[in-house]
Amino acid sequence: MIDNVIHAAFVMTTPILLAALGGLVNRIAGLVNIGLDSMMLAGALLGLIVASQTGSWPAALIAAAFVGGFLGLLMSLTVTRLEANEIIVGLGFNIAVAGLVRFFLKSWYGTSGTLSLPEVAMLPRIHIPVVADIPVLGAILSGHDPLTWAAWLLVPVTAWFLARTRLGLRLRAAGAAPQAARALGLNPLNLRDASTVFAGMMAGLAGAYLCIGVVGIFNEGITAGRGFLALAAFYFGRNRPWATALGALLFGLFDAVQIRLQGRGLPAELVQTLPYVMVIVILTLVAITVKRARNKGA
Amino acid sequence: MALAATMVLASVLGTASARAEDKPVALIVSQGGLGDQSYNDLGHAGFQRALKETGLAGKPVESKEVVSQATEILRRASDADFGLIVDLEYAHGEPMLEVARDYPDTKYVILNQVREGANIASVLFQEQEGSYLAGTLAALVTTDTSIKGINDKPVIGVIGGTKSAGIDKFIAGYIQGARASNPDIVVKVAYSNNFGDPAVGLQMAKAMIEEGADIIYHVAGGTGMGVIQAAREAGVYAIGVDTDQDGIAPGNVLTSMVKYTDVAVETVMKDYAADKFPGGQTLSLGLRENGVGLSEMKYTRDLIPAATLEKVEAAKQDILSGKVKVWNVVDQGYPDFMK
């Protein structure tokens, strides 16, 4: 039972974590990406189509990352070069991509809403011998797909990248002080574009995960607002990769718990609010702790 | 004054040119359009059958902006001298009220909801009756270990899209049917809170399968696709809803609780042709009218013992004869077993 909850929690976390890490880097470089959901949706659709056509999951992931990155570039150029409002452009992308996806499904596949294709290459699951049989630890470490591993490995990598590499520091400069960055001879707009392309690629992978890592079919509602949960996760984490990952994990964990708490005598409506209520509770606790620590220091 | 005179003139001309019942029929196709192999195609099939049998003229109306342009589409169809407008689009309920008032001589049909108006006929389906049969079948199959993928635990599940009377109508019927054929049955109920998220549907179905459920009914639209997928992966069974979903995962969809939209469209069109249009009334199509029922079970019929199928048929006869009354959450509120 507990093993199943843990495993489901990781499955529900991966797409949010991937998109949140992308959004985090994007925000650090100075752009709040409201359009993550649209890039996720496009990545989900293309990932499924390529996985079915080629029978290769790496090809599907590359295609999903590509389409997500391409949408990210378009969005970024609209914001950095045409000076459009990032919130409006992000919302516009969400609406436009949802419409295009529906149109594409209808005109190419003659279906509405759901796309089910034959011979979809799903992500393989990595079973670690011995460890898999240990309770709890087995559920945490074994039976996951490569994308889940990649998402978690990217957490320390992102932290290191932002703190220790030249490019990471330049991205931070582009976001925090674009004028200063320009004075140093950097081009903050180019840096910002690059970060949005990265965010788009990560969101595309998150979408592909839903289609070829979880269900094996596409539905126009498959992202179910997870792009916005990712947004909440990196706001929750205040741009720190580990805290952001914790935020994503909380969403995943409470979703997995919520699913299993239903039908145990508690009203369904109340149980379904659990993930969101818990996030508010934890945010409050974090804020109180930070404030106390600050007061003590002063 | 001049306006009133024109209206009198117009109505005189109207009656002189043709009786309303000879005027052609329009079928407004909903989102998804014709060719969806589902709701719209089913409605269109009934439309074509009725045209052929009654000799009426008519044509389907398709539009890309069927929802955003609701009022315009309805008005255009009304201006085009159709006598009867059958509307498959759910979102047209509200705009129809306004348009129908302006065209008192045109008749309108709306499905799956009740709209007031002397020239509007509403059609409801008795989904709880079909769901009762789905529950009966599920409860009989879930302890029959001779069937592939079935364990000996009397546990089945149902996943609804949202917690509301419209969805619980299906669920209550399902539970009632299951309990009638096995009083010890455990029916796990969960709600996805979303009609378009197959990932969460799959996770919910998996959680139920872990707890011994081997048949899961979904009343959750696109989320239900994940339920069917979970059943396929685990080698157990899902039950489809609204249209015949047996072919989505052949052999892993035990049956589907089908709403026969074609029967609904055909029924009202024939009434219209016979000058008996049920304006201002609500038609309620259940098992008796063939408005709801289980699918033909093309892929699973051979898996199920004949005795089981006979019991399901007997349950159907009990409902038809009035011996069994299936609970309707929308009309009667919640039954004790769901409180």
UniProtKB/TrEMBL annotation, chain A:
Chief place of localization: membrane
Gene Ontology CC terms: plasma membrane
InterPro entries attached to this UniProt entry: ABC_transp_permease
Q: Which UniProt keywords apply?
A: Cell membrane, Membrane, Transmembrane, Transmembrane helix
MF terms from GO for this chain are: transmembrane transporter activity
How does this protein lie in the membrane?
Multi-pass membrane protein
Q: Where in the cell is it found?
A: Cell membrane
Locate the transmembrane regions by residue number. 6-24, 31-51, 57-75, 87-105, 196-215, 242-261, 273-290
Query: Which Pfam families does the record cross-reference, listed alphabetically?
Result: BPD_transp_2
Under the heading PANTHER family, the entry gives: ABC TRANSPORTER PERMEASE PROTEIN, SUGAR ABC TRANSPORTER INTEGRAL MEMBRANE PROTEIN-RELATED
Q: What is this protein called?
A: Nucleoside ABC transporter membrane protein
> Species name for this entry?
Pseudaminobacter salicylatoxidans
Automatic annotation (TrEMBL), chain B:
Q: What InterPro entries is this protein classified in?
A: BMP_lipoprotein (IPR050957), Peripla_BP_I (IPR028082), PnrA-like (IPR003760)
GO CC field: plasma membrane
SUPFAM superfamilies to which the protein is assigned, alphabetical? Periplasmic binding protein-like I
Keywords of this entry: Cell membrane, Lipoprotein, Membrane, Signal
Mind telling me which Gene3D superfamilies this protein's record contains?
A: 3.40.50.2300
Query: Highest taxon of the source?
Result: Bacteria
The residue ranges of the ABC transporter substrate-binding protein PnrA-like domain are 26-325
What kind of membrane protein is this, topologically? Lipid-anchor
**Signal sequence annotation:** 1-20
Location within or outside the cell: Cell membrane
Tell me any Pfam family this protein matches: Bmp
The record's similarity note reads: Belongs to the BMP lipoprotein family.
Protein name as it appears in the record: Nucleoside-binding protein
Source species taxonomy: Bacteria, Pseudomonadati, Pseudomonadota, Alphaproteobacteria, Hyphomicrobiales
